[in-house]
Amino acid sequence: MTADRPASKDLILLSHGEGGKRTRDLIEGVIARHFANPVLSPFLDSGLLGRIDGEIAFTADGHVVTPPFFPGGDIGRLAVCGTVNDLAVCGAKGIAISCGLVLEEGTPIETLDRALASMRAAADEADVLVACGDTKVVEKGKGDGIFISTAGVGVLVDGWRPAPDAVRPGDRIILTGTMGDHYVAVLIARQKLSLSAPVLSDMAPLGDMILPLLKQFGMAVRFMRDPTRGGVGVTLNEMASSTKTRFVLSEEFLPVRESVRGVCEILGFDPLYLANEGKALLIVAPEAAQDVLAALRRHPLGKEAAIVGEAQEGTPGVRMQTLAGGLRAVDYPAGDQLPRIC
Questions:
Q1: Which of 37, 150, 290, 334 is least buried, going by the fewest C-beta atoms within 10 A?
Q2: What CATH number was assigned to the domain covering residues 14-156?
Q3: What percent of the chain has pLDDT over 90?
């Protein structure tokens, strides 16, 4: 065996997906040992979670990223954070997630092992159980190494639920931190760019930061979303459509890390449309906005939180008050303006 030609026993083979001994060896020897728990370990056809008290939230997500490892994260951590954050912005504490793997023939088992170890660490951080899973293998050239699909179950906190119909003119828009960190980190890894100031993905489970706000401020927090694919610009347009409201951003208050801004200036990107994986957008009643902002800034993930705009009277959509004093539309991007990262 040479350094660049691993032995077949070190690679994902088609026979790993055929249901025989190799499938069992992969599941028990590689996958399940990362997620050993009383729900998963019996290897039933479903994870039996027991009785759950409270209103249930349920979400599903798919995770595809090239390369699978990048500054600040990897596909395993992404799978957990993406799932539990979708629950958190709906006011739910994650209880359990699934792990569906689609593996390409020839993928190093070490790659899978590393991604699953990261997934387990993120699940522990988010205090969520990996309760069930499935594994499929596709022929070489018909996948991209490793895909992870997830579903997540959570319970709503104190009965809070998103209330887009409650958004009113004067409500404030709060962004919990800087824009575009995740997108730029993945792009740097993919293109092998060299920067004097490193950019790390911001991916993180958000529940510990935003769920306590719901207990403290209740329905003064009207509506939340996490600005993943399409970034703040696309997510706010979706929120404007849901709330039938006009949102007006203030360019001077939009937080962007200088290293991210530099990449955007060189490549001609607008940070408004770059993905995050550890930020949230909140629409908050004006009388509670400063207190919510202060609470966010006390949390390590919210130190750079800012009030970036407000809801106003007018045709639903998103506008931005520019540094030059003008007002411009922030619309959905037309076509694929940016290279896809996931």
A1: 334
A2: 3.30.1330.10
A3: 77
What token pair was written down for 145?
A: 């190494």
- For residue 268, is pLDDT > 50? yes
**Averaged pLDDT for residues 105-116:** 96
- Please state the three-class secondary structure of 12-80 as a single string: CCHHHHCCCHHHHHHHHHHHHHHCCCCCCCCCCCCCCCCCCCCCEEEEEEEECCCCCEECCEEHHHHHH
Architecture of domain 164-329: Alpha-Beta Complex (3.90)
* Rounded Cα distance, 166 and 284, in Å: 10
Domain coordinates in residue numbering, the chain: 14-156, 164-329
DSSP letters along 113-162, please?
HHHHHHHHHHHHHHT-EEEEEEEEEE-TTSS-SEEEEEEEEEEESTT---
pLDDT digits (tens, 9 = 90+) for 224-255: 999 999 999 999 999 999 999 999 999 999 99
Helix axes 289-297, 207-217, angle to 10 degrees: 150
Q: Report whether pLDDT(8) > 70.
A: no
155: nearest Cα among 49, 53, 297: 53
- pLDDT of res. 1: 43
